[in-house]
């Protein structure tokens, strides 16, 4: 049998990596994770995401997002059961927010964004279309992802390709070597453990921190997806909303609180989130203010932030074992998912070509 692969993590990054590796056909893939689709632990960030495709990086760092857009657009067009649908988005910015180089989502609000070339209906907003207090903006049709549908769909696609899943909490990355469903040692481990990479033995990446995101999901529908560059409620608070596909409700946000591990929704923050949405889009509540908001649930997810950005690289664990890291995606796990997974596959191919143990296994096919 050829070399087994073990993927650590069943978030969007781990599942997408496993899916692309499973398409290679000759390598048995096992996903090992503490959390699986359907779980709701805040440290399992993927279920809590918006999620959407609104590019966040500058042009010279955009390749992963460009590649991912091609696949998300295809899925929205051809695979409705994946839980992705097209939705028009309005991005609105305040000039004062662009002066802060540390502001979150800075790339999305660039004055002349590179990504306008991706969308046929991209246009600038007129002054009359802007919410009070905002100076400029743009509009285009992108996609919104219902994570409660998409994550199980990804898992199902993996299973269809022969991927096996095991639930386990690993204390050290070395343990993954013996977790393959084949019973043979895994020679290649994909580390997509997200925020878990901070505490995982053999990795313990202290550059990892949680970026707490609090949201509210409501029944109310909206005329368009919206995202705003800043708020008057402080630098850790945000304003955005998007309607999820297939009856997923409308998700409202939010916060971006770096270093905050608190998993419990704060009722005061929730009230501010709702009030900001009513202020910029009163029609969402049928003109009734906060009383018109029909709440489904409150949520908190801990984004896997990493100082220095995402880590996608290979590392030799021992003489016959390699790790390929794919973690630290912060707020853009979904919108870079396929581009990052393609890099994982590329590194996998490099390792496979260079390792004599793999050449031997191939010769036995």
List the helices and strands and how they pair.
Blueprint: E1 5-8, H1 12-22, E2 29-33, H2 63-78, E3 84-93, E4 123-124, E5 136-145, H3 147-160, E6 164-167, E7 188-191, E8 208-218, E9 225-228, E10 237-243, E11 250-255, E12 257-258, H4 267-280, E13 295-306, E14 311-318, E15 321-327, H5 337-354, H6 356-363
Helix pairs in contact: 1-3, 1-5, 2-5
Describe this structure in words.
This protein has 365 residues and is an alpha/beta fold. The chain folds into two domains: 5-45 and 149-207 and 308-354, Rossmann fold, CATH 3.40.50.720; 87-143 and 209-306, D-Amino Acid Oxidase, Chain A, domain 2. Helix content is 22%, strand content 26%. The strands form two sheets. Strands 3, 4, 5, 8, 9, 10, 11, 12 and 13 form a nine-stranded mixed sheet that branches. The chain has a six-stranded mixed sheet with strand order 6-2-1-7-15-14, covered by helices on one side. A hairpin with an 8-residue loop joins strand 9 (225-228) and strand 10. Helix 1 crosses helix 5 (337-354). The protein is globular, with a radius of gyration of 21 Å.
């Amino acid at each position: 049998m050829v070399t087994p692969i073990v993927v650590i993590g069943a978030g969007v990054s781990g599942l997408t990596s496993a899916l692309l590796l499973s398409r290679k056909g000759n390598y048995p893939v096992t996903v090992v994770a503490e959390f699986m689709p359907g779980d709701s632990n805040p440290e399992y960030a993927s279920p809590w995401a918006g999620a959407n495709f609104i590019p966040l990086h500058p042009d010279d760092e955009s390749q992963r997002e460009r590649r991912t857009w091609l696949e998300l657009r295809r899925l929205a067009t051809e695979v409705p059961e994946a839980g992705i649908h097209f939705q028009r988005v309005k991005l609105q910015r305040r000039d004062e927010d662009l002066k802060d180089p540390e502001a979150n989502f800075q790339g999305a609000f660039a004055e002349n964004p590179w990504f306008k070339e991706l969308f046929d209906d991209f246009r600038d907003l007129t002054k009359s279309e802007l919410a009070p207090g905002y100076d400029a903006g743009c509009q285009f049709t992108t996609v919104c992802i219902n994570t409660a549908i998409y994550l199980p769909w990804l898992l199902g696609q993996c299973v269809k390709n022969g991927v096996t899943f095991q639930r386990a909490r690993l204390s050290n990355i070395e343990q993954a070597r013996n977790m393959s469903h084949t019973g043979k040692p895994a020679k290649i481990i994909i580390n997509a453990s997200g925020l878990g990479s901070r505490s995982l033995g053999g990795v313990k990446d202290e550059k990892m921190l949680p970026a707490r995101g609090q949201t509210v999901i409501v029944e109310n529908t909206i005329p368009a997806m919206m995202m705003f560059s800043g708020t008057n409620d402080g630098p850790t608070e945000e304003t955005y909303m998007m309607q999820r596909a297939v009856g997923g409700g409308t998700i409202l946000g939010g916060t971006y609180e770096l270093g905050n591990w608190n998993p419990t929704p704060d009722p005061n923050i929730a009230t501010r989130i709702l009030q900001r949405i009513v202020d910029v889009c009163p029609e969402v509540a049928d003109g009734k203010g906060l009383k018109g908001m029909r709440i489904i649930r409150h949520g908190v997810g801990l984004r896997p932030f990493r100082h220095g950005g995402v880590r996608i690289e290979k590392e030799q664990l021992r003489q016959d074992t390699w790790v390929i890291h794919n973690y630290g995606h912060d707020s853009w796990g979904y919108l870079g998912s396929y581009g990052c997974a393609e890099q994982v596959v590329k590194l996998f191919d490099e390792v496979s070509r260079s390792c004599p143990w793999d050449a031997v296994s191939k010769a036995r096919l």
